Amino acid sequence: MLRYAGSRLIQAAIAIFGVLTIVFIVMHLSGDPTLLLVPQGASTQQINELRHQLGFDQPLWVQYVNYLKDLGHLDFGMSVVQHVPAAEIVASRLPYTMMLAAGALMVAIGIGIPVGIIMATGRGGWLEKVLAAIVLTGQSVPTFLSGILLIAVFAVNLRWLPTSGVGDIRALIMPSIALGAISMSTFARMTRIAVLDELSKDYVRAGRARGLSLGAVVFRHVLRNASIPVITIAALEIGNLLAGAVIVETVFAWPGIGQLAIQSIQSRDFLVVQVIVLLISCVYVLTSLLADFVYAAVDPRIRMVR
Amino acid sequence: MGEETTPLLTVDNLTIEIAGANVVDGVSFTVARGEVLALVGESGCGKSLTSYAMLGLLPPAARRIAGRILLEGTDLAAMSERQLRKARGKDISIIFQEPSASLDPLTTVGSQIASAFRQHHAVSGTEAFARARDMLVAVGIPDADHRLHQYPFELSGGMCQRIMIAIALICGPRVLVADEPTTALDVTIQAQILDLMKQLVATSGTSIVFITHDMGVVADIADHVAVMYAGRIAEIAPVRDLFARPAHPYTALLLASVPRLDITPKANLATIEGSVPFPNEFGYGCRFASRCPLATDRCRAEQPPLFEQGGGHRSACWHINRVHELKENAA
Ligand SMILES: Nc1ncnc2c1ncn2[C@@H]1O[C@H](COP(=O)(O)OP(=O)(O)OP(=O)(O)O)[C@@H](O)[C@H]1O
Ligand code: SF4
Ligand SMILES: [Mg+2]
């Protein structure tokens, strides 16, 4: 177990280092970032001054070392637009995205997993057909469209929910559904496949042979075994949710980091964009690290061997 | 051989249909208390379906269209799923060919054995574990206290089959169905498991329906033998009778491929020329006709019933009196 944990931690550390490096390369790939930052019609002298001020006139490797050093001190630089630390701007928006992601995950997991289980165990019934239709809809309607449709129906026509913005908890409902819908379908499909796969295994028949009902076998044995592939999906989906948040936050005027990302790209506030990219990448790495530990907790074969 | 005593288990006219074909067709046999009945036959002849039907565990594709499964007079086939659940594991148990796959990989073997006991007994977890421990000792697993806390992947196939036997027997069932319990194991382990099963029958009086395609195993463990071919019983007899005087061409050819009885030969049922017909090619006559050296027009037109040979020996063949020719040819 210790070796397993150790190797996963080292892998995660390497992945994060890789992320930092790739972000650095991408940020410098497009040429001299100074040109993005100066106002139109700036003189060559102004450009050179700014370049020097930002350190972009130094050799690339020096810039890279400085970049890593700064990150090491948790110094993510200043927003060139607002002249406050970029990290502070992102931090002020982060709670909104976390709320939205939590709401979307509740929709995705809270609906997706039970639907997947029902679809796997109630094979052929009418309920499965209804659920399959819902899952198909969830997975084929793009997020921006489902967001707009939700607003049109529940906010504009029925007036049950606010159209957009931040208010009480009700304001979170539609964005969560819009963001969680595709994930919900993914969870439902993966859970269904995982449960069906487990149901075909010999231990299910053996469990019934000692007097358990099929339902009891499912609850005591099948679900735990089926959870292993679903955990993998969960780790990936959390990352996907953050990417989807960019669209949903824009549609619903939700002041999270997705909306901030769009605003910062438009205003060429590239250090803020960099913080957001680093943040989302680290969330990817850390959730998959977390998934590795959850596997080990569920499966003795992973915990005890290697 | 207690042929005259009332049977503990009677399977009567069991018929199972898959996609319009009777893959098990009118199968009948009886098993006396403490007796081992071997069910032999080539792959696909319906042995497993017969065994699953005995516990009401047929796969969704299969349907029992006729037949009774009488356990001391109670028809299991007429029971509701609820009643069956009370009988499974308590009155009648089953073990399968793949012992490692039959255990939940994420649960310790101790708690799997204990939960099999608690399924039919209202006892505390501690007490059920104590029972599980006793059962591990009974099935010959050394260091039981340690093994209880191990997971299936930490145990060998032979160990897992012992665990499955412990699970199957912990509630003291009257019948144990064993569907090729040793086929997946290597030869020495196979012999150990057979010895264990013989010993358990002797001490507990449990009857066994032992499914195999290995005539050597039959000779080793069975009291009676039912030979199946393409979903039907070809011949059924006390074991000595069957080996000494086979009354069905299929049995005779099977035995001809077994060199000697007393040296536990490894029989290979596939040495008979040709192959088992598919369920959609069964036709009206004897299902063995396409491979039988003695087949006549009558065989192809008319299905032979089981003819009584005396002493519980029955054979479904129109030309029983010519079967000895096959034996002589083989010798
Ligand atoms: N779930 C199923 N769906 C469709 N056909 C099946 C199913 N199970 C069994 N069959 C068919 O029923 C027939 C009998 O199968 P069964 O498994 O009982 O044979 P068997 O004698 O146990 O063979 P083996 O020695 O290979 O285990 C075969 O022709 C098989 O193809
Ligand atoms: S009935 Fe005919 S075909 Fe069938 S086993 Fe007997 S001799 Fe062979
Ligand atoms: Mg079988």
Automatic annotation (TrEMBL), chain A:
It holds the Pfam family BPD_transp_1. The keyword Repressor does not apply. The keyword RNA-binding does not apply. Residues 94-291 form the ABC transmembrane type-1 domain. It is a multi-pass membrane protein. It comes from the Bacteria. It is found in: Cell membrane. InterPro entries: BPD_transp_1_N, MetI-like, MetI-like_sf. One of its GO terms (biological process) is transmembrane transport. The chain crosses the membrane at residues 12-30, 96-118, 130-157, 169-188, 230-255, 275-298. GO terms for cellular component: plasma membrane. Keywords: Cell membrane, Membrane, Transmembrane, Transmembrane helix, Transport. Belongs to the binding-protein-dependent transport system permease family. This is Peptide/nickel transport system permease protein. It comes from Phyllobacterium trifolii.
From TrEMBL, chain B:
Keywords: ATP-binding, Cell membrane, Membrane, Nucleotide-binding, Transport. Pfam families: ABC_tran, oligo_HPY. One of its GO terms (cellular component) is plasma membrane. GO terms for molecular function: ATP binding; ATP hydrolysis activity. It is a peripheral membrane protein. Residues 9-255 form the ABC transporter domain. GO terms for biological process: peptide transport; transmembrane transport. Its main location: membrane. Coiled coil: none annotated. It is found in: Cell inner membrane. Gene3D superfamilies: P-loop containing nucleotide triphosphate hydrolases. PANTHER family: DIPEPTIDE TRANSPORT ATP-BINDING PROTEIN DPPD (PTHR43297:SF2), OLIGOPEPTIDE TRANSPORT ATP-BINDING PROTEIN APPD (PTHR43297). Belongs to the ABC transporter superfamily. This is Peptide/nickel transport system ATP-binding protein.
